[in-house]
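Work package 3, deliverable 3.1, input record:
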Amino acid sequence: MTRSRDIRWLPGFSWVTLFFFVFLYAPLIILVVFSFNASRSATVWAGFSFEWYTKAFANDDIQRAATNSVIIAIFATIAATTIATMAALTLSRNKRVKGKPVFGGVLIFPLMIPEIVTAVATLTFFAAIGLSLGLGNIIIAHTVFCIPFAYLPIRARLDGMDESLEAAAQDLYASKFTTLRLITLPLLMPGIVSGAMLAFIISLDDFIITLMVAEAGSTTLPIYIYSLVRIGITPEVNAVSTVLLGFSVIVVTLSYVIGKKNKT
Amino acid sequence: MTSAVKIQALNKVYPGDVTALKSADLEIGDNEFFTLLGPSGCGKTTLLRLIAGFEEPTAGVLSLFGDDISTLPPEKRPVNTVFQHYSLFPHMSVFENVAFGLRRLGRSDKDAKARVEAMLDLVHLTDFAGRKPSQLSGGQQQRVALARALAPEPKVLLLDEPLSALDLKLRQSMRAELKRLQKDTGITFVFVTHDQEEALAMSDRIAVMSAGEIQQVGDPSAIYEHPENRFVAEFIGDANFLNATVAETTPSGTTYALDAGGTLTGPDQGRAKGEAVTLFFRPEKATLSQVGEGPNQLRCTVKDILYLGNSTDYWLALDHVTTLIVRSKNQTDGTVIADIGEQISLSLDPAALRILAT
């Protein structure tokens, strides 16, 4: 069959797709390439160098911001994943809960709320109740918006799981919590790990909500990068961004691979 | 007979007023291979889940060796289940699967190990202890499920259509295997199936169920030879039904005038003259011959001939609306008794004729 007769061939579509890919990845590639530039210029290539990475790692402010980011991400991830797991188990298994699809929808609805709205609302709310815990404020805010992200892969995994396995455990003299510990959680683990990694990245990358909620001394990496950019783009920003990018790609890939692994 | 399971007026109504079990009474004896047989939706699985404890009865009493267990959760009942799709724990080895119940009961490692080994030996899977369930064939998984359920020495073993996922050959060999296991262990088996052949082949007794009600309880030959109603007669094997009225009663037997014409004689079943009845006989109980019109013979026209290998089914038209099936064993010479369109005589042994409650 010639190409022109093939129903699946649509003229021009592949070029648009290709253009999209270029647009999507060219800026990232340029950022990564210029983070290794030997000169200060962000546009003229002057040879390969690790200079900006060395500088970035030696920078106390960057170190402090990175540490804050990681601490916030770790605590928010643990809290969000735990709550998301409990919510997923309740909304998929508990027969007494009525209107489960509604609750499920409400749980992931924040994914569709404009982040700036959430950010302002969170700031107002914290101010109203007088909450001032430093990093604690950011951790609480991050936990909340990470829950839907952690929930989705956990719920997907749970829905694909055979409920008769839990019935079998119960039939073999296992109590509810023994069944949860020995059967449900181990089988759910790929979903939980996948959800946790997603939550971690979302927390690590967050800018808008963090900017609103952060108090003095709780600067995170994205906020610090933003403040650097306002002064002017330097290869140092490129270097820090590249590290963050690399880290995100690795974690998201792992999350995807683990989530896909041994589907039961 | 000591009753292993005794249910009295047991009812199960699901939300939305769906009655799955209507006031069932049943006694299952100790050391019995008992089968719950019926089409899907008849309530057999509900009854099994009630015994296992996965469902709570709406009303009625369920007792196990004399103890009322109606309100106990599944983990407190000395009853184990072999699930339809085995439900082996995929993240555990065969050994760990079989040991699961023993560990929950607090058996020592040494005890549990010995018991698991004995169980794996019983189902011929000793060499597979270290494998994961996904590395086993369907038949092997089935045997692991059996070993796992038998390991804690349950008082009653429940089997939920355990053979339905296997292919035909394996299913047939597993029938003998299950019967052997039941005899060897001496444990009461309650087996759920929709396959009447399976039920007849394995059971000591069968309860035929339909629409949430127990239709008849009896041993396989009683169920097959003396079905109490039309549902049982139709569900187990093939059946011919004839509407008739009682024409004459004598001490030696009763003669029935068929609505489709002709008469048949059968054993006296205490029906009054003139009463309308439904007669029933199995296709293999009748014989065909080319000639004659004698006592207990009906002249029919051959409508269809279905060759089944070891036997042949003749579809016969008695009149325009009544079709009878006669199953004739195939002889070595392969001669055909009649061709389509020919007239033929059907003879029936009076002892094979039954009256059904309508």
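The CA atoms of residues 91 and 99 of chain A lie 9 Å apart.
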